[in-house]
Amino acid sequence: MASYIIRNVSKSVTLLRLNDTDVKYFEANWHIPEGITYNAYVIKGKDGAVLIDLWKQKYSDLFLEALKQVVEPAEIRYVVVNHAEPDHTGALEAFSEVNPNAIVVAFPIAESLLRAKYNFKNQFKSLKNDESLSLSDITLKFIYTPWVHWPETMMTYYEQERILFTCDAFGSYSIPDGVDDQVADKEYERYSEKYLVTVIGSYRDNLLKNIEKLNLEGIKPAIIAPSHGLIWSKNPERVIQLYTRWARGESDEKKAVIIYASMYGSIESVVKKIKDSLPGVNFKTFAFTDNKRDDIEDALTEANGAKVVVIASPTYEVGPHPSIAQLIDIFSMKMKGLNKPTVLLTSYGWSSTADKRNLKAMQDAGFKVIDQATFKEKIAENDLKRIVSSISAALSSQP
Ligand code: FEO
Question: What is the mean pLDDT of the chain?
Answer without folding.
Answer: 95
